[in-house]
Write a structure and sequence with these properties.
By secondary structure, the protein is of the alpha/beta class. Helices cover 26% and strands 14% of the residues. The longest helix has 17 residues. The chain binds 1-deoxynojirimycin (NOJ).
Length: 533
Amino acid sequence: MGLNVQNEWWRHAVTYQVYVRSFADLDGDGIGDLPGITSRLPYLRDLGVDALWITPFYTSPQNDHGYDVADYTDVDPLFGSIADADALLDRAHELGLKVIVDLVPNHSSDQHEWFQAALAAGPGSPERARYLFRDGRGKAGELPPNNWESVFGGPAWTRVEDGQWYLHLFDSTQPDFDWRNPEVGDLFEDVLTFWLDRGVDGFRVDVAHGLFKVESLRDQEIAEDEVPGASAASAAPPSSMVERTLRDEPMWDQPEVHDVYRRWHRILEKYDGDRMTVAEAWTQTPESMARFVRPDEMSQSFNFSWLLAPWSAPAFADVITGTLDALAPVGASPTWVLSNHDVVRHVTRYGGGPVGLARAKAATMTMLSLPGSAYLYQGEELGLEQDEVHPDFRQDPSWFRTGEEGRDGCRVPIPWSGTAAPFGFGPGTGQPWLPQPSSYAGLSVEAQQDDPTSTLSFYREALAARRAHTTGIDDHVEMIDLGADVLAFRRGPVTVVLNCGTAAVALPAGDVLLASGAVEGGKLPPDTAVWLG
Ligand code: NOJ
């Protein structure tokens, strides 16, 4: 397994995901904002990351917390202004941090002027042709045009007053664009240019595999052994989004989508500074992921395979070899991610409590040793767990549409300091937009920053070790057999061992460069990782 080593910054970067509502609230309204992020940039620099990715902060009614965009080239007053975005970019660049912004091209908000015009203009109009309006089935068109289900649960179609239906693969307030209409491509060219001109270093592309649907909008075939409704899987998170049980996916990963990314590639190429794109593409295989990152398309694609894997050395080994083997033919660099704003935090996925935390640190450290770039999610450096958000405070549309767990539990505002809510998240007193648990008192940045045994200190140490020991080394990964419960590999001068079993294992010779737990007498305890040099 080996990859071409090229020099663009994003090929080896560690990027920290900022969920804007929940990172830092400067104006004290209980919701995070852009000036809040700017005020905390020195923290990110000191943590040792290279870049930040900020979730959508554009004008939006916030039905899906910004993934429902009403104006792609303005900032929602909730989060600040264009001047605040400019100030954030300037300060980040001064501190040597790159900034990636979110781009949401699959759908807009129903409050976008185009959708409002489409509703007003009526069937057959050019305004409707920017979205996917269709007549219904049944005698009086009373049935949806096909059998597709929304990723957030329920039918993917909503009927409007004049009887037509429109497609929304997510919430009914998020109508899907018709990317076969050239006006849509032109709109997004303008959006890209707008933000590139302001100095952003890259775009995280939401639902990158979804823009084109099969042209006929035919029914999805559901075999007898399959569970309907679970396929929208390919889009992302709640359990329905990650369990892929339907094989036929006429709404995802259509070949036409790649022309869009070739066009975007040509736009980005005109700018200096190695501007980049990273695809959120929940594809069925590593091979289909690789198609998004061919040399003339996107720079990177999120690789969700580790995040979906169980706590198992063979499963992790398959993820690593499968990823590297799939990407090598297209010369793309891999990405690794364990948590984001759509999935259960990895401490909790790995069992929660001390064991969950030990495993999370070990997995993170292993991920950070691999070639390519890594994405961290805000709060993982504090060891935060998924929170149990009381139903009265739930906000995630997928919770309302499915009653399933939803994603609020990984979006609780960050504890910065103090012993009571809002834990320095914003000025004043009282709970922010999602309530913080009292356990945050011991997990705040302030509580951890000077404690050498804290999770925060471990992340700082791990990021510094990555810089010191993996910069410029060979990207080739060679698996080593240390037993069925042990993931072990060599990358250049560094040997990485992760013990997923229940007994301590004897380590090969070498100096300990970094360890996620106590390594004594040449033995690696369970749920622990080590880098040897
Ligand atoms: C993926 C985003 O990560 C998620 O938060 C959002 O709900 C959907 N795309 C729809 O935009």
